[in-house]
Amino acid sequence: MSHRLYTPNSVDNTMDPRGLIDGACSNNGNLDAWVGIVDGSQTSQCTEICAAIAAVRLAHQFFLNGEFWGAGHVKGIILMTNSAYLVSAMTDWVYKWKRNGWKTSIRKPVVNMEDFIELDVLVQYLEQNCVPVRFWCIDREHNTFVDALVKAATGL
After folding, report:
1. Is the pTM of this model over 0.85?
2. Scanning 5, 41, 86, 140, which has its CA 20 to 30 A from the CA of 80?
């Protein structure tokens, strides 16, 4: 099991914060697809990755501001998402992709490679500075509040 995979009994349950993330994309996969965060290929998977990047960037800023240390401060972050794709990518596949020169098991380039590289670099920075980052795949019904916020923000 990956050290980045969070299950409720796998690590200290006092780890904070637990960030719910989600992405949404109108006209998913089409050339006229629209997303509020990214340019280029517009897919729901891409928006999930970009939501994770935004959350980890925020955690990175907290770290730089010294907010991860001391009494009452967070010990790490848990990204809660209903995207099994994102969780599998960041807890399992990313290690294989890096070993394979960012190629899949069938030697094709990793889809959303640039975004996964950015996310992995941000996560590695925090982990190297003793701020664990965990990814937790939750059921869609536990992510309805964030899903509603994302859909409202994108007009879906």
Report:
1. no
2. 41
Select 18-23+45-142's CATH number: 3.40.640.10, 3.60.15.10, 3.40.50.300, 3.30.420.10: 3.30.420.10
Q: Which of 106, 116, 131, 104 is nearest to 4 (CA)?
A: 131
How far is it, in rounded angstroms, from Cα 26 to Cα 34? 6
Task: Give pLDDT tens digits for 12-21.
Answer: 445 554 454 5
For tokens 């509603």, name the residue: 148
Tallying the residues shown for the chain, one arrives at 156
How far out from the chain centre does Cα 139 lie? 16
